[in-house]
Amino acid sequence: MSYEERGAWIYLVATAGTYAAYVVVVLGRAAGGPLSAVPHVAPMLWAIGIGIALSIAGRIVVETVKPSESHKSDVRDREINRSAQHVGGLVLGVSMMVPLGLTMAEAAHFWIANAIYAGLVLSALVATPVRLVACRRGL
């Protein structure tokens, strides 16, 4: 498995895991009450920060335990990343219509912030598998 592919797997797991943990924390804090009244800022910031830290630490641990043969990206890796970023950007652009609509409808900040976070996670959860498939099967 290449350096880029390992990094993509780590990023995918870290992103999905921290978002799932965030959702569990927020739903747990709701305790049957309205979700928009739940304090969500601190858990969201913690989830984003932990996701970033897990991605970095995971890559360091994996590369320490079983180093990749090369850390240099070639033309193929750059094309795969470009293609995956293109797909992720399209998903992100389309998903940002939801928070825009919520803002125009003057929805609670909770819903707007969570729509943005969900759009970012969705973008990562679509772009990363595109990258992984392209690494395995080619462009």
Automatic annotation (TrEMBL):
<feature type="transmembrane region" description="Helical">
    <location>
        <begin position="83"/>
        <end position="102"/>
    </location>
</feature>
<protein>
    <submittedName>
        <fullName>Uncharacterized protein</fullName>
    </submittedName>
</protein>
<keyword id="KW-0812">Transmembrane</keyword>
<feature type="transmembrane region" description="Helical">
    <location>
        <begin position="44"/>
        <end position="62"/>
    </location>
</feature>
<feature type="transmembrane region" description="Helical">
    <location>
        <begin position="108"/>
        <end position="134"/>
    </location>
</feature>
<keyword id="KW-0472">Membrane</keyword>
<keyword id="KW-1133">Transmembrane helix</keyword>
<feature type="transmembrane region" description="Helical">
    <location>
        <begin position="9"/>
        <end position="32"/>
    </location>
</feature>
